[in-house]
Specification:
Distance between the termini: 45 Å
Largest sheet: none
Radius of gyration: 19 Å
Helix content: over 70%
Amino acid sequence: MIYWRLLWSFFQIGLFSIGGGYAAMPLIQRQVVDAHPWLTMTQFADIMAIAEMTPGPIAINAATFVGIRVAGLPGALTATAGCVLPSCVIVTALAWLYYRYRGLDMVKGVLACLRPAVVAMIASAALSLVVLCFYGQRTLPADPLDADLIAVGLFAGSLVLLRAFKVRPMAVMLGAGALGTALYLLL
């Protein structure tokens, strides 16, 4: 029964995660934290961090990690297959349709309308992770100034390094991880 739940949950994630891994984060959260108590929000944030750092698509990495955690290797294979299956079918069908009807204005209009929805889903995922990192909970506390100052400082420093100085993302992640570990151990 757990395999069917994993397959169906990640099938839904794969089916509705238009826009890639970051857009899928709210959908993954809904399935693995809210709908099924497979993970806590903290475990979800940890898995998302690991899924972002490992090579490959975030949703597939998350499916693999959640599947292993819930039902071992068969669970990982089931969840990953559920996540990949809708994409394979949809991309094949869309490629055929796009190739056949790519000149139509309606097709161009549909693609233009999807862009804002994808941006909103990515922003929602980012905001959820920022609130969790800064406050250690899913919602803003009564006192928004009661944030984890180390997390806020690491975020701000990383943002400056990435945007202003164009430091490579992998170097920023490794540096922030090392600095964060040292600061949390010392303080």
